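Figure caption, in words: inputs first, then the predicted bound structure.
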Amino acid sequence: TIKGFVFDLDGVITDSAEYHFLAWKALAKELDIMINREFNEQLKGVSRMDSLERILKYGAKDQLYNQQEKEALAAKKNEHYVSLIKDVTKKDLLPGVSEFLTELKAKDMKLALASASKNGPFLLEGLGIKELFDTIVDPAQLTHGKPDPEIFQKGASQLGLSVEECVGIEDAPAGIEAINAAGMFSVGIGSKDSLGAADYLISSTEELALDNILVAVAH
Ligand code: B16
Ligand code: MG
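Bound structure (1,6-di-O-phosphono-beta-D-glucopyranose present):
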């Protein structure tokens, strides 16, 4: 039986991808690298340092900076990003998310956050839903990022549950891959094109409903 839900953040709970994009775009521009929204798709679910590496590679400038300089660049992007998300409120929850979380809590489901973002706790706070989460996986403690299953396995174990007792929810291909590799039931939010590997697929957060998910798990 399902006793817990392990959530991705960006793209599932709130659309922070847009703010990540604006902050990366500004930093890239300073480095004479132009990125667009299409390129930004590749950064979803990818850690801060790995995102920077991808941008530098894309601009053929990955050999120009040493580790210390890269860390300074990543810190600069993060400062900008944090300034963009500092005024986030309940209104920034994706449609249906507030109702879904309330439904899960009413049915005594345990909730974990499995986000690659080090700003996850800060965002949950601003969104007014931090108290609903029983645990947050610390991405700084991970050996491997998504698509490695580690973050979802930790989410389940931090809830005191087995992976079979949990449902994972994601909007990125690497995230669905990670949930599946963990042996957890995967719910994808997006299109069949990119999330065809999900055990259960919906096109938007508005369609999140506990009963439908439990029926899909039972099949
Ligand atoms: P930070 P998720 C991910 O969040 C974002 O999708 C990705 O674009 C970002 O680079 C990453 O978090 C790290 O974020 O710089 O705040 O630590 O989708 O795993 O919730
Ligand atoms: Mg995501």
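The radius of gyration is 17 Å.
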